[in-house]
Amino acid sequence: MAEHDDEALNSSSAVEKHGTAHGTIASPGTAVVPADPFENPGEPPHRARRTDVDPKKQRLAERQVATFFYLSIVGSVLAIAAYVAFPIKEDDFSTVRLANLWLGLSITLALLALGLGAVYWSKSLVVDREITEMRHSTRGTDATRAKAVEAFQLADKESGFSRRKLIRNSMIGALAAFPLPGIVLVRDLAPAADPNELLRHTMWAKGTRLTKDPTGLPIKASDVTIGSVFHVIPDGMLDKEDMLEEKAKAAVLLMRLDPNDLHPAKGQENWGYDGIVAYSKICTHVGCPVALYEQQTHHLLCPCHQSTFDVANNCEVIFGPAARPLPQLPIAIDDDGYLVAQSDFHEPVGPSFWERER
């Protein structure tokens, strides 16, 4: 403390001790400008690589880079071969693991070899001299822009892209081959049959009973009370091999309203039974399940994008992005009192874009 106290008593400002850059004494509070700023140390000395000084090492590196690119081509071709050689069988889950294993290994080889080739090229053959570039405004002058073109040309010259034909051609081949597995795999996702035709028809047919989802129990008209709602699937769907695909088209919501609240469209007066109506569960926006029913307002809500349909008025769209009403399934009752379909839907179910002719 004593030292600090003495120092405080005898202290003076830095300006009073050292003055300004010109040697004069400045008043307290004036900023001190140092007279001897440190010098710019500049860039460190450039260290040449072996490929910079030895032509043999340079040619070896060029062949190594091309080898990586050729390996990438091999990986892309193997991915296509694996996709064909190891098909997935629905009744054998081990085929899924086998197909994924070989597809993953092949695509990994294609990606890894392509990346390693690019990195090794830049590390061993591209000119690596250090430079310092001053920051300029966002858009340069015409002269600066011309210099940019010159820089690209210089980069091409230093990288040897135009000159090193082996590397250039092998890299172009690798880049061209790499998307091929993706094209083959994605193309095979489309159904073999015409999707426009497949999506126009569902399992519903004349006389098909309406059953509860997921139990498959048939529904009697007497089971449906006013205000209730049933999630419905066609009878026999649970036994189908492609059950999920069929359900994605044929799922239905069944509701019962006071017949006085219903306002059926012209020609559809007999599509319901004593206030019981059935509409597609597949939203006409992007195909989400319309699963929320409001008893008091008779509104159906799609939880994905809030499209709202009015059941009392033919499921017309009253809010949201859906472009058209939910298709109605014509229903009746059979001799045993069970609800049955009169026919399939009279219009395509699901998103509106499936209606478009190709």
Characterise this structure:
There is one protein chain. This protein has 358 residues and is α+β, with helices and mostly antiparallel strands. Among the domains are: 71 residues; 145 residues, Rieske [2Fe-2S] iron-sulphur domain (Rieske Iron-sulfur Protein, 3-layer Sandwich). Helices cover 37% and strands 11% of the residues. It has a four-stranded antiparallel sheet with strand order 1-2-3-4. The protein has a four-stranded antiparallel sheet with strand order 5-6-7-8, with no helix packed on it. Strand 9 and strand 10 form a beta hairpin. The chain is elongated, with a radius of gyration of 38 Å.
Sheet with most strands: strand arrangement:
1-2-3-4
**Run of helices and strands:** HHHHHHHHHEEHEEEEEEEE
Average pLDDT across residues? 85
Large-scale geometry: elongated
Quick one: biggest sheet?
A: 4 strands, antiparallel
Number of strands: 10
CATH class of the domain at 197-341: Mainly Beta
**Over all CA atoms, what is the radius of gyration?**
38 Å
Q: What fraction of residues sit in β-strands?
A: 5-15%
Percent in helix: 25-40%
**What's the end-to-end separation, in Å?**
92 Å
Number of helices: 10
CATH homologous superfamily title of the domain at 197-341: Rieske [2Fe-2S] iron-sulphur domain
Second rung of CATH, namely the architecture of the domain at 197-341? 3-layer Sandwich
Helix/strand class: alpha+beta
Give the low-pLDDT segments: 1-22
Indicate the multimeric state: single chain
Indicate the CATH topology of the domain at 197-341. Answer: Rieske Iron-sulfur Protein
